[in-house]
Design goal:
Elements (H helix, E strand, L loop, with lengths): L8 H39 L4 H21 L13 H5 L7
Helix pairs in contact: 1-2
Length: 97
């Protein structure tokens, strides 16, 4: 079939790299947002008008996202095995970004 994007090595490589760059960007953005939220704290979020339960849930969710980022970068102990740095494994696909 000739309709649409035809797979070839260039499109596979481009897609592989683009997805990994998107993953890295999302992880970095979540970490930055976590730091911002953590600086505000629950009381800061409540002062902005957020309900206490929602502030707690938001801080908890981003704390978990930050923990996941630390696992991704090999900066967190994940159990009996040594920390595994996922970041080092995808760098070759990102064009060094």
């Amino acid at each position: 079939m000739s309709a649409g994007i035809q797979p070839n090595l260039a499109t596979i490589n481009q897609q592989a790299g683009s997805l990994m760059v998107n993953l890295l960007n999302s992880i970095e953005q979540a970490q930055v947002f976590y730091q911002y939220l953590n600086g505000l704290g629950s009381s800061g979020l409540i002062a902005l008008g957020m309900a206490s339960a929602d502030a707690t849930a938001l801080l908890s969710a981003y704390s978990n996202a930050n923990a996941l980022a630390n696992v991704f970068y090999g900066q967190a102990y994940t159990g009996p095995a040594l920390p595994y740095n996922f970041y080092n494994q995808i760098v070759p696909l990102t064009g060094g970004q």
